[in-house]
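Researcher: We plan to redesign the surface later, but first we want a full-length starting point. Tokens attached.
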């Protein structure tokens, strides 16, 4: 039996709707394939979630650390092509075979330095510049050394663009510290030497703290906190197991 004009009209409408749905599906799929960015990219909410689920949930309590990591646009410190991954619960590559550390490890190490703001802090291993930004946001006077010149340059640019122009950067071997600016209230080493770089302890004030991952190259290391007493002795706390890229330069000859 021939279809009525009303039925034919409904069928054409259905065909148009299916075609439209297919067209939209292709557009969405194309966008997902062409761009690595998730469609719901919202750095502010991702950062808030990172602080909640990766830091507070795991026991980070220092409000200064939490507030700094809530504030700093971590995605500005990773290469642009992976900025949408900046709030993941892991380290990420930043070029030159180096990494920006996992957010939790940044928070843990910074909290372990027991800072109250205003301290003079030396960082060895600038990398992306993110840890230096965290320390600066907490009100510290930051000196950071990176052995790979290309990374110092990128970190310098990111720090300036993110509003942390006051951070002092330098290319060099952090093994020798920053003698002209010593002594420091705190020293944080974000690459792993196989033994404690004792030369740096000389640049620590009495009462100062040094955080350093010590252990084998590309293996599991121990995160140590060395505290210099008022009398100049050093007390060591072994904190947690960690995995860091190796500290290179002079220290390699001191195995
Ligand atoms: N703190 C960094 C951040 O926030 O992105 C992450 C640092 S990355 C895990 C370790 C860095 O230490 C690398 O950039 C590496 O080139 C640097 N490094 C290794 N040995 C060094 C040395 N002797 N002096 C200074 N930097 C060093």
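Model: Full-length starting sequence:
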């Amino acid at each position: 039996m021939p279809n009525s004009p009303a039925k034919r009209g409904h069928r054409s409408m259905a065909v148009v709707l299916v075609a439209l749905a297919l067209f939209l599906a292709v557009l969405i799929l194309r966008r997902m394939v062409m761009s690595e960015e998730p469609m719901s990219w919202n750095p502010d909410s991702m950062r808030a979630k990172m602080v909640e689920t990766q830091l507070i949930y795991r026991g980070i309590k220092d409000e200064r650390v939490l507030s700094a990591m809530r504030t700093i646009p971590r995605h500005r410190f990773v290469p642009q092509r992976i900025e949408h991954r900046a709030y993941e619960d892991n380290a990420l590559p930043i070029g030159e075979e180096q990494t920006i550390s996992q957010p939790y490890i940044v928070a843990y190490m910074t909290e372990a330095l027991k800072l109250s703001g205003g301290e003079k802090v030396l960082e060895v291993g600038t990398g992306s510049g993110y840890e230096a930004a965290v320390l600066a946001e907490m009100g510290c006077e930051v000196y950071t050394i990176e052995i790979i010149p290309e990374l110092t340059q990128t970190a310098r640019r990111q720090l300036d663009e993110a509003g942390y122009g006051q951070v002092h950067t330098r290319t060099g071997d952090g093994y020798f510290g920053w003698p002209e600016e010593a002594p420091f209230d705190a020293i944080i080493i974000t690459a792993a030497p196989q033994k404690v770089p004792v030369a740096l302890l000389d640049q620590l004030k009495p009462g100062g703290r040094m955080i350093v991952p010590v252990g084998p190259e590309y293996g599991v290391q121990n995160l140590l906190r060395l505290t210099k007493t008022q009398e100049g002795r050093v007390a060591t706390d072994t904190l947690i197991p960690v995995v860091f890229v190796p500290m290179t330069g002079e220290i390699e000859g001191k195995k």
